[in-house]
Amino acid sequence: MNRRCRDLLPLLLATLVPILGSSDASAQAEESTGWRGYQGREDRLLDIRSRHIRLSPTLTVQEQYDSNIFLVDGDRDEDWITIEAPAVDLEVGSDKVSGRVSYLARVLQYNEHDEQDTDEHFLNGGFRWKPGKVFVGVDGSFRLTSDPIDLVLAQRLEIERDSVTGVAGIDLDPLLIEVHGGHRNYDIREELFDRLDYDTDEIGLSASWKLNEHWKLLASAVGGWTDYIEDVKNDYDFAEGTLGVHWLPSESFGARAEVGYRSNNYDPGSGLSPALDDDYEAVVARLTVLWRPLEDGLVTVAYSHGPQESVVTHFVTHARVLLAYEHTFGWRWKVQANGVYERAEESTEAPQEEKENFGAGAGVTFNIT
């Protein structure tokens, strides 16, 4: 398998991170700037290093259209948003130990709704130690974004998301097994909405079996508990299992697909929500397709479907479709264009029961080094 084909593998992994069902700004930030979270030393797209160190500062300028900036059902506000996004990515690696820290800032300026102008920040990092077939590591992230909330309010709020995850696994080529345990925190930085803050703890198991150089079989299972800080909403336990395939048929095409079953079981003994029997039990799906029509061009098509947290009901069933293209000129310049369609539906009758949004934009990234 040549280098171009190998390069699609980390791209598939990295592209999956932002599409796992999120309408928040963090997902769009990662897509629009090409910024990626920690993927480990062996999963780098590029390998530009000096004595085991790689430093990559970039600057992206983007113009983005949003058809529903407050994500409401009914009278919508649309706008054009100018985004300036400096980023830096630092990797340190050796034969057994690797680490990575990435930081991205976004300065958003709205054309018509300048009261919504804001800064967003993303910090992500982790390390892996692999002395042999066994490996261990820790990942962590911090995100401060401005997101719409599903109320009858033309308002976007600052939301902080933190996470820390420990991982361990064993590589028994062709079988790779990994376990993880993690904690996530969700905090709306507005005192009026403190009652909607929550913590999530989970543990999971994933495995992949390499059939040949083109095919991998995937399986995963995760379960845990979400606990709201105040008893306004119902706490719940959750479980999800998926099966999938990872397909790299050629040097210019790759696909990853997963389908499974998700169950959110809400605790009738906590919270004030009336619809205590509205558990979420449904199919979840994720698909990513990457295609290089040109040596320096990359097309991304992605789809995701599953539940998200809701402000007014238990959950939102969320579907998202992404189409993006990026083209690299040399190694300093990159241009990008993308389109995103999202649809969200509340689990019970609510003032904002069904919402949809379309976004499109284009930008340019300059590699400073």
Question: What would you note in describing this structure?
Answer:
By secondary structure, this protein is mainly beta. It contains 2 helices and 16 strands. It has a 16-stranded antiparallel barrel. Strand 13 and strand 14 form a beta hairpin. Helix 1 runs antiparallel to helix 2. It is globular, with a radius of gyration of 20 Å. About 10% of the residues have low confidence.
Number of strands: 16
Average residue pLDDT: 82
Shape: globular
Q: What's the oligomerization state?
A: single chain
Give the H and E element order.
HHEEEEEEEEEEEEEEEE
Distance between the termini: 30 Å
Strand content: over 45%
Short synopsis of the structure:
The protein is mainly beta and 369 residues long.
Question: What layout of secondary structure does this protein have?
Answer:
Layout: H1 3-19, H2 25-33, E1 53-66, E2 79-93, E3 97-110, E4 118-129, E5 134-148, E6 156-172, E7 175-188, E8 198-210, E9 215-228, E10 236-250, E11 253-266, E12 280-291, E13 297-309, E14 315-329, E15 333-346, E16 354-367
Antiparallel strand pairs: 1-2, 1-16, 2-3, 3-4, 4-5, 5-6, 6-7, 7-8, 8-9, 9-10, 10-11, 11-12, 12-13, 13-14, 14-15, 15-16
Helix pairs in contact: 1-2
Which tags fit this structure?
mainly beta, 16 strands
